[in-house]
Amino acid sequence: MTAIFLREFKGYFNSMLGWVLTGVMLLFGGLYFTAVNLQGGYTDLSYTLYSFIIVLLIFVPLLCMRSFAEEKRSRTDQLLLTSPVSIPGIVMGKYLSLLAMFVVPLGVYALYPLLMKALGAANFAASYSGLLAYFFLGAALIAVCMYLSTLTENQIVAALSGFGVLLVCYLMPAIQTLFTAGSSLALVVFAIILGAASLIIGLHSRSLVLGGGVFAVGCIALAVLFSVRSAALTTAFSAVLGALALFEPFLNFVNGLFDVTALVYYAGVAGLFLFLTGQALEKRRWN
Questions:
Q1: Of 34, 52, 188, 219, which is the most buried if we count CB atoms within 10 A?
Q2: pLDDT tens-digit profile of 211-230?
Q3: What is the Cα–Cα distance from 214 to 30, expressed in whole angstroms?
Q4: pLDDT tens for each residue of 105-133
């Protein structure tokens, strides 16, 4: 795992990608820090971090696009999967290298509260708790985009799919308000999600009968729930959409609250997609 971590981390800075991405994060961080904290007079760094949080929609997919897609394109993944390193070791080696790349600009951001204190006043507790939440947010987003990179051998496709998924998560609070009109729309969307899930189950199990059976049973359950408790569909669907709003929990830290549940949520998202990444690699190893 250590060898994979060092190879991946050095690889980013042996090319222009690592330098450019780090430079972009430092550029936007410096600009917003100057505008919000130095000129605006805010003593909390969380406001600055939230102001350019949208930059992560571009930074993270570009950072993660080559993690596994490039390995598949160049067929070096076959050497990696047949090496004595375990699947969890491969996943964690690459994941920790991506986290280290993300931590580099965060290390510079950690100096900003000290600069604010030297020039006037700084809220250290709020600033560093916001920085911690920003790290956990980035860790979750990196895990999502790294998993998407295992699904293709084209780096551009991996980057675009990562950007699309993160954009939907970023816009999810606005999307969530569109589904509060009634349960009928929630029923349609749940049926579409059920169809997609059934198709995935059928393809993975190589049994369309199983996929069709799951879809049929799910449709019956949805129909019964719609006829008996239609309002529950809207409530459940709103809860599902709320769980997909990855950027929303960070607002609690901007508002001055140290939300432990938000950190647990980000850790859970990262753990889930790291597990899915491992399963995707395990399937490719056996294939």
A1: 52
A2: 788 888 888 887 777 777 66
A3: 52
A4: 999 999 999 998 888 888 899 899 999 99
What would the two tokens of residue 238 be? 């709103």
Give the domain range for residue 232. 183-240
Residue 175 covered by a domain: no
Instruction: State CA 56 to chain mean position distance.
Output: 9
One domain, residues 13 and 125: yes
User: What are the C-alpha distances in Å from 13 to residues 60, 86, 139, 143?
Assistant: 16, 26, 20, 21
Whole-prediction pTM: 0.83
User: Read out DSSP for 28-91?
Assistant: HHHHHIIIIIIIT----HHHHHHHTGGGHHHHHHHHHTTSSHHHHHHTTHHHHHTSSS-HHHHH
pLDDT at 98: 92
> Long-range contacts made by residues 194-198, C-beta under 8 angstroms, separation at least 24?
194/218, 194/219, 194/222
